[in-house]
Design brief:
Blueprint lengths: L4 E3 L3 E5 L3 E7 L5 H4 L2 E12 L7 E7 L2 E9 L2 E5 L4 E4 L4 E5 L4 E7 L1 H6 L1 E11 L10 E5 L6 E3 L5 E7 L1 E2 L2 E2 L8 E8 L4 E4 L6 E13 L3 E3 L4 E5 L5 E16 L7 E3 L2 E3 L2 H12 L8
Antiparallel strand pairs: 1-21, 2-3, 3-4, 4-11, 5-10, 6-9, 6-11, 7-8, 7-10, 9-12, 13-14, 14-17, 15-16, 17-22, 18-22, 19-20, 19-21, 19-22, 23-24
Length: about 290
């Protein structure tokens, strides 16, 4: 069976003033093992008291990758320099392709902030190959009603297919490189098998409950299991009701150069990104 490596959150910090996060990568320095995924921040569950001034992250740029935000509790609003805006709530997904550059903000939705409540979300950064890093930005709002729900055999639970295919259902997300992103619910004492293409990287993030992977690797709340697919089935069994985010994709075999909100292939491209942002070439919010 495929070798499983287990990771705890590598850092804990606050993004802006509205997202208390535990980071699973890149803080664990596993870039090559999780490509095409670049970052996983787990926000919450955190209770925020009522306020008239929505918390969150103000205007900031991105270039060279995509951000994927999945909300489990609470509501988050988005606005960007390409003219896109929207609100995502429980079950919704926002998929923003920054590509050549975009400036945006992410805040608690105003009415929700005025009531207060618990926020729980995951934000992923997904790399783009060099051929797509300087293409036009794109924005996808994937509302929960548009995300297929596939019941598992034996009433073991269910899978929401955000990207890729599972059980004959195709997720609504348009992706640049081949990948699967699955929101999995597995009931206690039930199991299932996942199968991915040979050579794909696979990461299983547990939001709640506990599962074993391939019979002998227990994974609990806020832990990440990472493995490279051999094409053989990956066996999951829940010790208690569990909620997981399954990330799998074809790795991008290119150099990675990072600087804050920019992810390119070379240092000179990072310098150009900084210069372009300062020159206003990525736009600004009104």
């Amino acid at each position: 069976m495929d070798q499983v490596r287990l990771y705890e959150p590598g850092s804990t910090h606050v993004v802006g003033d509205g997202f208390h996060v535990r980071n699973l990568f890149p803080s664990n320095e596993i870039d090559r093992d999780v490509s095409p995924f670049l970052m996983l921040d787990y926000a919450g569950p955190t209770f925020y008291p009522a306020t008239d001034h929505p918390r969150g992250v103000g205007e900031h740029p991105h270039r060279g990758f995509e951000t994927v935000t999945i909300v489990y509790q609470g509501k988050v609003s988005h606005r960007d320099s390409a003219g896109n805006s929207g609100v995502i709530g429980p079950g919704d997904v926002q998929w923003m392709t920054a590509a050549s550059g975009v400036v945006h903000e992410e805040l608690h939705e105003r009415d929700w902030a005025q009531q207060g409540g618990t926020l729980q979300a995951v934000q992923l950064w997904v790399n783009l190959p060099s051929s797509h890093k300087m293409t036009a930005p794109r924005y996808q709002t994937l509302e929960t009603e548009a995300i297929p729900l596939v019941p598992l055999e034996g009433r073991a639970g269910s899978v929401r297919v955000i990207a890729g295919e599972f059980g004959g259902a195709k997720g609504p997300a348009t992706t640049v490189t081949p990948m699967q992103l699955l929101d999995l619910r597995l009931l206690a004492q039930r199991g299932m098998a996942l199968r991915f293409a040979l050579g794909w990287n696979v990461a299983l993030f547990v939001l709640s409950g506990q599962v074993t992977v391939n019979g002998s690797n227990p994974v609990g709340e806020a832990q990440l299991a990472v493995l490279a697919s051999s094409g053989a089935p990956i066996l999951l069994e829940a010790q208690e009701d569990a909620m997981l985010l399954v990330m799998a994709g074809e790795p991008i075999h290119e150099p990675i150069a990072r600087y804050g909100p920019f992810v390119m292939n070379r240092q000179d491209e990072l310098a150009q990104a900084v210069n372009d942002y300062r020159a206003g070439k990525m736009g600004h919010l009104d």
